[in-house]
Design a protein that fits this description.
Shape: globular
Oligomer: single chain
CATH superfamily: Response regulator
Distance between the termini: 21 Å
Strand order of the largest sheet: 2-1-6-7
CATH architecture: 3-Layer(aba) Sandwich
Protein name: Arsenate reductase
CATH topology: Rossmann fold
Number of strands: 7
InterPro entries: Ptyr_pPase_sf (IPR036196)
Low-confidence stretches: none
CATH class: Alpha Beta
Helix content: 25-40%
Mean pLDDT: 94
Radius of gyration: 16 Å
Amino acid sequence: MYKILTATIKGIIDVQTISEERKTILQPLIDSVQQKASRGEDINLNFICTHNSRRSHLAQVWAQVASAYFNIPNVHCYSGGTEETALFPKVAETLTNQGFTIFKTVETDNPVYAIKYEDNALPIIGFSKKYDSPFNPASAFVAIMTCSQADGGCPFIAGAEKRIPITYEDPKISDGSPEQAQVYTERSLQIATEMFYVFSMIKS
């Protein structure tokens, strides 16, 4: 993995920063991933938020990196929303500052980003889409609801084997304020810490 990203990861793998309450919230995801890993099955995770612009992308990226870091095979991470918007530029900027290499492959109102954590790994593809987009798995996936609005607004996720709420405060609340960069950095690191905790618990 890239040098700056490796340094970022070293700073977040202290699981003591996760409260017992959050560990309880994360346990169903650990159980689901472990069950699939023990059977040698594909582990398809679809992180869902309202606009698929901030939290769901951060969770998708960090979960994919955490699975690679802990050598958990057959993990495929996706994200989607209840509506399509665009990946918010501050998310890409934050991930770049934390060590990822990111470039746009398509320049539109809804740009497509290639997000790389090491030179020889397949890039993570980031763009806003509905959770049931053809880009995402149609069945045999775990739906992780990263915002309470999407969790409440989507009583049924077609194709999902399980639905797990793991919600985060929206960094959007800081947009336009002097604290924006700090808030996005903190939210990214919170999500990273929790995804690394989840995959650190998986026995392959």
